[in-house]
Amino acid sequence: MPDPFPLPLARRPRRLRQNAAIRAFAAETELTPGRLVAPLFIRDVGAIPETISSMPGVKRHLEDSLLFEVEALHKLGIGMVALFPSLGGVEKDDAGSAALDPTGLIPWTVARLKKEFPDMAIMTDLALDPFTTHGHDGIWDPKRGDLDNDATVAVLAQMGVIHAQAGADFVAPSDMMDGRVGAIRSALDEAGLIHSGIVAYSAKFASAYYGPFREAVGSGASTGGTYLDKRTYQLNPANRREAVLEALLDEEEGADVVMVKPAGPYLDIVREVREAVHVPVAAYQVSGEYAQIVAAGQAGWIDLRKTRDESLLGIRRAGADLILTYFAREWAEDFARRS
């Protein structure tokens, strides 16, 4: 019998995996700091930054620590931050009235950051959950036991103008109300804010992965520890076609960027949306994804750094042009050391 070795193979894919230099030029997907957006929490009271127990390494910042953090991110090549308020000194109500205060925490912070870091792009969240007593993302209709879609959209449009006037580069409606992107775009244009962009949370699913975030901004259930049911406005995790439809509608209404949230459990949605729209696609690696990786790493069950890197690369490979992640700074620091 003829010697079967070496095997008569014309193509040996392992040739392109032999060493680091070869693997580098053969890599099909690359991730750089400019692809990352750092979500940052800001608190309005307190003497020092506050740690978030369910998100190790993440803080609710005060002014000084926020400026320090943004400076570090800017030096690392991260070009955008997303701001989220945690309100302790503001009285909340059912309508989220504090969201329309032009001197409130977010508008004030945006103006301060733009003064110090004019080249840093700033995204602000348009949703009422941090400002309402009930913790939902809009105006609650007690008769229907649901959010009033159109009343919420009217408030979000006003909120968007306030944030853009303060200097926000992008306003980001995360509420999932019907028609809100078109209404916000019209309000911005009517106010002369034609250069202000919209990052639409287009496919935001009713996910169990948001728990740590709700602790961070204080928008959990009004009583007890049960998480709010937001399934009448956030997407059903079972639905793919509906997610693509939402992204297409937001693109048509004037969104400059569409987003899928969460990222990791919905990589198939990221890919389908990327193939359906012509605008950039963002994906949000949410608080629960972050917490899982960090907790398992701290327990010694996984290699935290390698798992972190693999999770981000997978989101990028699926088609995300931008990734919102709480790992942004530490990943960029590691990237700088490798470069």
Query: Can you name the CATH architecture?
Result: Alpha-Beta Barrel
Mean pLDDT, nearest integer? 93
> Which CATH class is shown?
Alpha Beta
Label the overall shape. Answer: globular
- What multimeric state do the chains show? single chain
- Could you tell me the CATH topology label: TIM Barrel
Element-by-element helix/strand order: HEEEHEHEEEHEHEHHEHEHHEH
Major sheet details: 8 strands, parallel, barrel
If helices are DSSP runs of H or I spanning 4 or more residues, what is the number of helices? Answer: 11
Distance between the termini: 52 Å
What's the total number of strands?
A: 12
Strand portion, in percent?
Answer: 15-25%
Please provide a written account of the structure.
The protein has one domain: TIM Barrel (Alpha-Beta Barrel), CATH 3.20.20.70. The chain has helices at residues 20-26, 63-75, 105-116, 149-166, 180-190, 211-217, 241-253, 267-276, 287-298, 304-318, 328-338; strands at 36-43, 50-51, 59-61, 80-86, 121-126, 140-141, 146-147, 170-173, 197-204, 257-261, 281-285, 322-325. With 339 residues, the protein is α/β, with parallel strands linked by helices. The N and C termini lie far apart (52 Å). It is globular, with a radius of gyration of 21 Å. The chain is built from eleven helices and twelve strands. It has an eight-stranded parallel beta barrel, surrounded by eight helices. A two-stranded antiparallel ribbon has the order 6-7.
